[in-house]
Design goal:
With about 325 residues, this protein is an alpha+beta fold. Helix 4 runs antiparallel to helix 5.
């Protein structure tokens, strides 16, 4: 038996985005306020196929969402919503962490997350300067890179600096820089920033501080995947309990809930099947699947207060 993992686009998935948005902040960016947000959409799933000696292929049971749903979900009408909820968390929340880069015209990559953060820091300083009448001087100097061994080191160029003492000129320089920063922020092809009702030129220092705090990554990179798994588990579980009243006494995650959540995380590559030495998948029992999902909700962790981003998104370009 040969096994292959491929990404399969599944079309015609029915989903109610209004309902999903009750549990997932990121989905709110997809809502049309002028209509009911029931859609038919495509979901790309990571499916594993088993091919026998006769060349016949079939989906491995752990990836057979329809089968798992029939066996575990009390109301199968929610199956499409759960797929789209998981997809939206991957496409919005995980992508927000994973991909802050864009290719420039020159072909190099820039980190849009860091770019926005630096522009906001500049904007804050420049706004504070324009609010002050005590700017005594501005220094403009030329720097160049000089070869030092195998490295290039920046040096001030002698006699190529200007000090501006005139208050009016200082204000003009600072205003020019501020307007340029506002322009660069507006043109930055960065998908989303948190909900702020004002446009960039109206932002107060408190708004900028809020954005800077928001852009700060609250966890180390090596913890990102696990924290996202916990965030996704919590979100899906809240949906299951909220929409189907799927509770069972003091049990935080039932076995069926654990199996369903495990399957959703498997389909989107958040968790993976282990592979043995013969390149065959090592399947988990339903009990072990639920145990894995429960491990995301452990309360005995020293850093349990650290969470993945819980993003409040609005389209950035719609605000400028």
């Amino acid at each position: 038996m040969e096994y292959s993992l491929i990404i399969e686009p599944i079309t015609g998935i029915n989903a109610n985005l209004d309902l999903i948005a009750k549990y997932h902040n990121g989905t709110k960016i997809l809502l049309n306020p002028n209509q009911e947000n029931k859609v038919k959409t495509q979901v790309d799933l990571k499916l594993m196929f088993a091919t026998d000696n006769n060349g016949e292929s079939k989906i491995v049971n752990d990836y057979h969402y329809g089968k798992i749903v029939a066996e575990t979900l009390p109301d199968v009408n929610h199956a499409g919503n759960l797929l789209v909820l998981a997809r939206n968390m991957m496409d919005i929340d995980w992508l927000y962490y994973q991909n802050h880069t864009a290719e420039t015209i020159e072909g190099s990559d820039i980190n849009l997350h860091s770019e926005l953060e630096q522009l906001l820091k500049d904007l804050k300083v420049l706004k504070l300067q324009t609010a002050s009448d005590g700017i005594l001087q501005t220094k403009v100097k030329l720097r160049e890179l000089r070869k030092v061994g195998k490295s290039e080191v920046p040096y001030d160029v002698e006699d190529m600096g200007v000090t501006v003492y005139n208050l009016h000129e200082n204000k003009e320089i600072v205003t020019l820089l501020l307007n340029n920063r506002l322009k660069l922020i507006s043109e930055l092809d960065y998908l989303y920033v948190p909900l702020i009702d004002t446009t960039p030129n109206e932002w107060k220092i408190s708004d900028i501080d809020e954005l800077l705090a928001y852009l700060k990554q609250p966890f180390p990179d090596y913890r990102a995947k696990w924290l996202f798994g916990r965030y996704a588990t919590q979100t899906i579980l809240t949906y299951l309990k909220g929409e189907m009243d799927w509770n069972q006494g003091d049990v935080e995650v039932t076995q069926n809930q654990g199996v369903l959540i495990y399957t959703l995380l498997l389909l989107f590559g958040v968790v993976h099947l282990d592979i043995d030495e013969a390149n065959n998948p090592k399947y988990k029992s339903d009990r072990d699947k639920a145990k894995l999902i429960r491990s995301f909700l452990r309360q005995d962790l020293k850093d349990k207060e650290v969470e993945f981003y819980n993003l409040m998104f609005t389209p950035f370009l719609n605000k400028i």
